[in-house]
Amino acid sequence: MLELRGVQVGAGSTPLFEGLDCQFDAGLITSIRKGGVLDGSSTLLKCCAGILPVQGGEISWKTQSVHQMPVDCRFQAISYCFEAGGLVSLFTVYNNIAIPLRYHGICDEDEVEERVQRAMTQLGIAHLTHAEPHELNDVQQRLVNLARAFAIDADVLLIDELQTGMSQVMYSKVVAQLQAQAARNKTVVMVTTSGDEDGFADRHLLIKDRTVVERT
């Protein structure tokens, strides 16, 4: 379980979230619908991943403070999937997925290859193995970010606006893979925008008035 207690998040002097209490349970897909442009949704996910600090309150995973966890432990537990970017320009797709596994010593080289190939196949991007980031479109970049999270086998997947630009067929296939992750007791949290299909999610939230509320 990923839990937020009294969380305050801001961009400079601008408050984005105040006194936010929320929890995301394992085995469920949660959709957080954006409340508007610059609503802080991406910042919130990055705070949940420990990438950005909070201004108050605490975010914890399995009762451990996310921001106090050793970096390698946090990396293996929680993966943030960027909406744009998030890839090293000098590395191929294969190495963008593989390098974090090597750097953190998660597994040996044989298993690295197995994990990377499996993740790319699951998301239909095996043909991009040798491509470089500048050769990818926005959708492909997001899929590589997601494949990296799959390869890491993180317990928590934080996914920022995945659907934009995807065909319905492609999106349906990716959703099936996310449902498979949830079935393995992973925590899946997605930021979605108006018009995105999220009927498959187990829980639907909306960003409103500097907090998140249940969406009906």
Automatic annotation (TrEMBL):
Q: Which PROSITE patterns match?
A: ABC_TRANSPORTER_2 (PS50893)
- InterPro entries given in the database record: ABC_transporter-like_ATP-bd, ABC_transpr_LolD-like, P-loop_NTPase
Record key words, sorted: ATP-binding, Nucleotide-binding
**Species the sequence originates in:** Allohahella marinimesophila
Q: Which residues form the ABC transporter domain?
A: 2-213
One GO MF term on file is: ATP binding
Give the protein name, as stated in the record: ABC transporter ATP-binding protein
Q: Which Pfam families match?
A: ABC_tran
